[in-house]
Amino acid sequence: MGKVEVHGLLASPPTRAVVITCEILGIPYELKQLDPMNKSPEFKKLTAQQQIPVLVDDGFALPESRAIMQYLADKYGKDDSLYPKDLKARAVVNARLNFDNGTLWPRLIQAYRPTFSGGQVDEEGLKSLLDSMGVIEEFLTREKWVAGPKMTLADISFSGIICILTVPEVKFDMTPFPKVKAWIEECRKNPILKKYDDLGVQQTRERMAMLREKFKQR
């Protein structure tokens, strides 16, 4: 098996989700760190979307982290534990990934993007985010993991996003979501998830500090 290429930035939760998937599945990979604000002509040829991450596997280029994770699990997974082949179980994983991409991630960005430059939390965005966290709490009331009784790709993707809410400077109150808190601790028992979630927290803190200092000087 040759190495796949992951074009992205580890500060990005979607890029980390792809890297975590590679490591859990034992897929050799090369991370090509990419500044999203300064894309090379070579990168621009890979995808019309111009977004990270992008996977390159033997000349095949694929954007969108959730699609990449699904592709990797289908092609390289030794079993179907992360991405079940059973139609109904897989449909639940897909539904969670769609919720993550279309609801959770955009709402988190809306709520907290202003705080990265020293502004206030977007209250409307925070209200929507709290609604989403309530949905996840309900997922975890019904099952141990977000898409069923075992960890799947959905947990990998959710974990990289929700870890941002544990950053002290974000000041998100997790008290109303005890099931989510317990799930975070369960995720952290996996050394690969823990490693990259810790990295995500560290890089989020560093980026917030850098941007706040930059805007303070204006």
Task: Explain the overall architecture.
The protein has helices spanning 13-25, 41-46, 65-76, 87-112, 123-142, 153-162, 178-187, 191-216; strands at 4-8, 29-33, 54-57, 60-63. It is α+β, with helices and mostly antiparallel strands and 218 residues long. The chain folds into 2 domains: 4-76, Glutaredoxin (3-Layer(aba) Sandwich), CATH 3.40.30.10; 87-216, Glutathione S-transferase Yfyf (Class Pi), Chain A, domain 2 (Up-down Bundle), CATH 1.20.1050.10. The protein has a 4-stranded mixed sheet, with helices on one face. Helix 1 links the parallel strand 1 and strand 2. The longest helix is centred in the middle third of the chain and has 26 residues, at 87-112. It is globular. The model has no long low-confidence stretch (mean pLDDT 92).
What topology emerges from the helices and strands here?
Layout: E1 4-8, H1 13-25, E2 29-33, H2 41-46, E3 54-57, E4 60-63, H3 65-76, H4 87-112, H5 123-142, H6 153-162, H7 178-187, H8 191-216
Parallel strand pairs: 1-2
Antiparallel strand pairs: 1-3, 3-4
Pfam families: GST_C, GST_N_3
Domain GST N-terminal: 2-80
Domain GST C-terminal: 86-218
